[in-house]
Each structure stands twice: as C-alpha cells, then as structure tokens.
Amino acid sequence: MLAFVEELKKNWANRNKVVIATVINTIGSTYRQVGAKSIFYENGRFEGVLSGGCVEGDIFEQCKAVLETGEARHIYYNLQDDDPIFGFGVGCDGGMEILLQIFDPINHSETAKKLLNIYSNALESKGSYRVLTVLESDNTSKINPGTSWGLQADSVGNVFKNHDESYYITFDDVAYDDFTQFTINALTENGSKKIEINCFLETVKPIPQLLILGAGHDAVTLAKQAKNLNWFVTVADYRTAHIESEMFDMADERILCSNEKHFKNISFEGDVSVVVMSHNFERDKFYLEQLYLKNFTYLGILGSRKRTIKLIESLNVTYPEEKVYYPAGLDLGSEGPEEIALSILAEILKVKNNRTGNFLVQKTGLIHE
User: Fold this and answer.
1) Which residues cross the membrane (predicted)?
2) What is d(CA 86, CA 163) in angstroms, rounded to the nearest whole number?
3) pLDDT digits over 33-51, tens only?
C-alpha cells in the first residue's frame, strides 16, 4: 500500500491521468489476491502487477476506454488452461475480477483528490481502515460506479455527499470479511429517496512496523531488507553516533534511547514487530524490561540460546514463553548479516500471518486461505 500511495501522490503532483486497477474477486489459484492494486499509465506502463504479467497487456487495452470516458468498469479473466476460447493458458487454475477506476487530477480533480485522501488516511491509520467503492448503481447521475469513501474499521455507518443531495449508508462493519461485495441501499438523510448500489469493501491493514533496538552493523541489513518490503522502520540505540550514522538513512525514524524517558518516544500503535539486537547484555535487559506489556506482534532476540535464557532469567518481569522468539529467525542455516536478516523477517511474517512456515509442497488446498 505504501508504494501505491506514493505513486498516487506523484501522479497528483504531476497531474498525470492514470487508471487504478484493483482485484476485487478471485476464483481458485491466482498470482495476486483480492485487494492487490496496479496503476496503468496512458503510454501502457504500469506499476504493480496483478497476474505476474499474464494479462497486464489486455488490462491496458481495457484501461483505454476508462482513460477516454472517465467511467469505471470491472472486467473478468479466466486464467485456466482448460478454456481454449476465453482462457489465457497460463496455468494459474483460477480467475479474477478487476475494477478499473480513473484517477484524473485535471478533468476529475475532486474525485482524484478524494481517492488520494482516502488511501493516504488508510496508510496513516494505526488500525485497520476500510474503503468502500461502488461497482454498480441504479442512479448513476447521483452515485457513479467508482465512487469511493473511507471508513474507520469500527464504524457502523458513514455519510457522504454527492451533487446536491446527501446519501448515507449504514451497515454492521464487523459482520463483513476483509474483502467482500454486497448490495445495499444508499438513503437520503430524511429517508425519502434511495439508490441501490453494489459495493466492494476492502480492508487496508496497517503498514507493518519494525522496531530495531540496537544500531549495530548487522542492524543495517535488517533495516534495508525491511524497507524493501515497504515496512515502516524505526531504529533505536543508546549511542548518538550510531543513531545519526548515514548507514541508517533508509530508516523512517531514528530514536535515541538511553533511558526510560527516551523509551516513551517510541510508538507501539498498530502492527509492531520488535527485534532486540544491541549486543550488550545490560542494554538488552533494559529494552526487554521497557517492552513488557507494550503492544507488539512479534518480539525476537538476537543471540545464542544460552545467552538469551540468562538474559530472560535476569529480568524483573516475566514474559510468557510464547511471547518471545529466540534465537530470532527461522532455521534456514543462515550465515552472515544478509541471510540472518532474511530468516528474521521470514519468522516475523510467519508470526504476523499465523502461518506454519512449512514447505508449500506439503500444504493441501489453496496457498492463500
């Protein structure tokens, strides 16, 4: 989502007319899942893939009509080999439905700005954020297909204005899956008029955050690889020179953390994973005691098992066994900072996504539940 929003911001600033393509439904096995997005330019270039390159060329052909008319549309693809007429013969054994929306800062500036604000708000939200987009409407003069608005994850309704009338929808937000389509009535405020709309509801998860406690040389590789995943990276250390080093220029946030007061400057809102790796026993002990009862998805400690057991036993607090991962990382036979960073990030993904980390060849059924 970070890369998508950054691309939207650039197109807004440069006044580029583009098409946003979003996967809104899948059947069987597909390269990308529901919610995946791509941006198509007028020259055929695109940012983000939806099918591994299988149908992007045809998607662009469909985008031409959207670029010309400004009207949203949704398209369908059968990616099975066994369909000689409509299939693409790519062997994905599935199908997908894609929504195409115009993003035009010149001719549809209000709509483009609204879309940019919605996804920017979703990106900045510490909790889950939901975006509702109209796919079909029985009164397109009042509510157009492609109309979107944002909802906080704990909302039970929303009011939005279109032209000269105000329509609202109300639904039990928690009753819906993260990605779903449904039909509902949009009503005027006095309830005298209604418009039936078919909608796509998508849940935008908070950007994963990685807090690295310890700004040593091996932390540089971990920070870089996390940034390659578009995570928000915070590096904290008790040594000013290490924090200010140009080696950590890629970090989103750098915090001097030498006492309890400094530790309070670290945010634990949202999806936060923590790796303790200062290589200093007393400093690691301080970090772990400060982390106690904080909100985090994952807590890993770098170092040998023997050292970490000794470290945990020395704490003035008691962590549940299942809350701490040590030695941090999956058993990949990793050696060197790059491989160790890979194993740690893989373990974080495993924990965040509640997966087994086993071989996919041993998994029965769909790869994505």
Assistant:
1) none
2) 40
3) 888 899 999 998 998 888 7
Residues 57-113: tens digit of each pLDDT = 889 999 999 999 999 998 988 766 545 444 444 445 678 899 999 999 999 999 899
Q: Could you tell me which residues are beta bridge partners of residue 116?
A: none
CATH, range 209-352 = 3.40.50.720
Most confident of 70-74, 146-150, 319-323, 355-359: 70-74
Beta-strand relationship, 18-28 and 94-103: antiparallel
> Taking the CB of residue 102, how many other CB atoms lie within 10 A of it?
23
| Model-wide pTM > 0.90 | no
Measured in degrees and rounded to the nearest 5, phi and psi for residue 7 equal -70, -40
From the CA atom positions of the chain, what is the Rg in Å?
A: 24
Measured CA angle at 52 (ends 119, 64), to 5 deg: 65
CATH 3.40.50.720 in the chain is located at 209-352
Measured distance CA(41)–CA(50) in Å, rounded:
15
Question: DSSP 3-state assignment of 31?
Answer: coil
DSSP 192: S
Enter the tokens of residue 87.
């299939």
Instruction: Report the chain's terminal Cα–Cα distance, integer Å.
Output: 21
The encoded tokens of residue 19 equal: 């098409």
